Amino acid sequence: MREETTQEKTRGRPKSTRPPREMISVPGELAPAVREMVKAFRDVERDRKHSC
Questions:
Q1: What does the pLDDT look like over 1-52, one tens digit per residue?
Q2: Which of 14, 31, 15, 33 is nearest to 23 (CA)?
Q3: pTM of the full predicted structure?
Q4: With the C-alpha atoms ordered 27, 31, 33, 36, is the resulting torsion angle positive or negative?
Q5: How far apart are the first and last CA of the chain?
Q6: Which of 5, 6, 27, 52 has its CA 20 to 30 A from that of 44?
Q7: DSSP characters for 8-47?
Q8: Please, which residues have CB within 8 angstroms of residue 34's CB and are 6 or more apart in sequence?
Q9: Ramachandran region of residue 12, left (φ > 0), alpha (ψ -120 to 50) or beta?
Q10: H or E segment at 24?
Q11: How much is the pLDDT for 12?
């Protein structure tokens, strides 16, 4: 393998360890409720990770 090829692989941003985002569609009138549910879920997950 040539040296150029090795250098090309190390360029750019490193891969994220976080899972990819998943987009969903909900009816407009449900959007605020879904947003609150996601916010509450993230708060619980963050608290759970910090308590360990």
A1: 555 555 556 688 888 888 888 888 999 999 999 999 999 999 998 888 888 7
A2: 31
A3: 0.53
A4: positive
A5: 45
A6: 27
A7: HHH-SPPPPSSPPP------GGGHHHHHHHHHHHHHHHHH
A8: 26
A9: left
A10: none
A11: 87
At 1 the pLDDT is: 53
What's the rounded Cα separation, in Å, for the pair 44 and 50?
10
d(CA 27, CA 51): 36
pLDDT at 39 (0 to 100): 94
DSSP-derived 3-state class of residue 31: helix
And the tokens for 22?
Answer: 């998943």
Location of structure tokens 């040539």: 2
Measured CA to CA, the distance from residue 27 to residue 29 in angstroms comes to: 6
